[in-house]
Design goal:
The longest helix is centred in the first third of the chain and has 12 residues. The N and C termini lie far apart (54 Å). A five-stranded mixed beta sheet has the order 8-5-6-10-9. A three-stranded antiparallel beta sheet has the order 1-2-3. The mean pLDDT is 97. It is an alpha+beta fold. Strand 1 and strand 2 form a beta hairpin.
């Protein structure tokens, strides 16, 4: 593993982190920054937010997100699954739209109530 410089996104402070070959983290103001730096170098994850097509609602698209972070390398596969889905109103916040998306063990859920028209 090579050394990396990152900006911490755990809190608004935005510490400039340096992670060395031995996974020692410097530049962090709090312990959460050290955890973030190690994770970002060894196993980066992201929450994916997007929209899916919906029929029978006032709007044509329903906002969704992954319930938990997914491996960064799976983002394109997850987006492909999200883009292929079409749902029907009504949908409520937290409803599972795609279960175990792309084999990640993480569900895609609705982030908005969409009532039937």
């Amino acid at each position: 593993m090579e050394e990396r410089d990152l900006i911490c996104i755990v809190c608004p402070r935005g510490c400039h982190l340096h992670v060395d070959k031995d996974l020692n983290v410097t530049g962090n103001f709090c312990p959460r920054g050290a955890v973030y730096g190690k994770q970002e170098v060894t196993n980066p994850t992201r929450v994916v937010t997007s929209t899916v097509r919906i029929e029978g609602a006032n709007l044509a698209m329903c906002p969704v997100k992954t319930k938990d972070p997914i491996p960064k390398g799976k983002i394109f596969e997850v987006m492909s699954s999200i883009n292929s889905v079409k749902i029907v109103a009504p949908v409520h916040i937290g409803d599972v739209i795609i279960k175990d998306v792309a084999g990640t063990g993480v569900d895609v859920v609705s982030t908005r109530d969409m009532e039937k028209i």
